[in-house]
Design brief:
Strand order of the largest sheet: 1-2
Order of helices and strands: HHHHEEHHHHHHHHHHHH
Shape: globular
Helix content: over 70%
Distance between the termini: 15 Å
Structural class: mainly alpha
Largest sheet: 2 strands, antiparallel
Strand content: under 5%
């Protein structure tokens, strides 16, 4: 990921610099490059997982990572477009230990900055002379449509009394798996891979994405605020129907009934209720199920990767990134 930041950040900065002043200010703040007043920040931005997957996929299939930098930068721009919009929709107050962009600059400018990053991503690919650029543009655009559907379902679940585990998994596949799959597929496209290899890489990324989402959902309940930069149990306080929660609610246990009652109560959860909800998810089996499901998706990911790159020695970086994505604390 450090190498990905080193290779991709200059392309990201060059693209974001072309934005109008107001949009540049919001985007540069959100990306962790500037303070609200525009002065520079001496710190890394995000984790750069998705661009790292693009470059690692290209390398695994025999291409120099530098050749796929435009694709990696485009994927990172799309990821940050979704984060800017998600923070507005979820009314999240903090990200990466800082106030979210909308809470600093206002809702309208945060949305517009997200829209601008989306357009920048597509422009990067449209202007790239690599033979795979056209196919990569189409795939990334299709991915954004799927991401929007996943986000729609995630928001819709908040007002529904019942959500099935199958529905929740499908939502996570669209909201999280789609972009990780696209990242790996774009790396394969830029390596000149055959269509079946591109699809195997896409399937690998999607499986990793589901494992990643399960880890993220566990962090949203039991993550350490000092590490995550978000309040303890933030997903429970927002009554999100995350995968461990839905699995717990489906368990037909006394703990599931207690959790359901906490989720039905329209009043904001107190800190004590958040702790009680976390305990109920655990006792109802949601935590254990999420750990097992993440392991199953990782196993499936490796199966897909062996189809794409039979010599796993060359795919060591992809395997390491997949492991890191699912064994993380923030």
């Amino acid at each position: 990921m450090e190498q990905a930041r080193h290779l991709v950040e200059p392309a990201l900065r060059a693209a974001v610099t072309t934005l109008p002043t107001a949009m540049h200010r919001v985007a540069a703040y959100h990306l962790g490059w500037q303070h609200p007043d525009g002065t520079p920040v001496c710190a890394d931005g995000g984790k750069a997982l998705r661009p790292a997957l693009v470059l690692a996929a290209a390398r695994a299939l025999g291409a120099p990572p530098a050749a796929a930098v435009p694709a990696a930068a485009a994927v990172e721009l799309i990821h940050n477009f979704t984060l800017l919009h998600d923070d507005v929709m979820d009314r999240d107050a903090t990200r990466r230990h800082r106030p979210t962009a909308w809470s600093v600059f206002g809702t309208a400018d945060a949305i517009l900055a997200g829209d601008a990053l989306h357009a920048l991503a597509l422009r990067l690919l449209a202007q790239d002379t690599h033979p795979a650029a056209t196919a990569a543009t189409a795939r990334l655009a299709a991915c954004v449509i799927e991401l929007c559907e996943g986000q729609h379902e995630d928001c819709a679940f908040e007002t529904r009394r019942q959500v099935t585990l199958a529905e929740c998994l499908a939502m996570a596949q669209a909201k999280t798996g789609a972009l990780l799959g696209a990242a790996c597929a774009l790396g394969a496209l830029y390596a000149g891979a055959a269509p079946e290899t591109v699809e195997a890489m896409n399937a690998f990324g999607r499986a990793v994405g589901l494992a990643f989402q399960l880890a993220d959902d566990l962090i949203g309940i039991w993550g350490d605020p000092a590490v995550t930069g978000k309040p303890a149990g933030s997903d429970l306080a927002a009554r999100k129907k995350s995968l461990p929660v839905v699995a717990a609610l489906a368990s037909a246990t006394p703990a599931a009934a207690q959790l359901a009652a906490l989720y039905r109560d329209p009043a904001p959860m107190t800190a004590q209720q958040v702790r009680a909800a976390a305990d109920a998810v655990d006792r109802a089996g949601g935590r254990a199920w999420a750990h097992l499901a993440a392991a199953d998706h990782m196993s499936a990911a490796i199966d897909h990767l062996t189809r794409a790159a039979p010599d796993l020695d060359g795919a060591e970086d992809l395997l390491t990134l997949a492991e890191l994505a699912t064994r993380r604390d923030r």
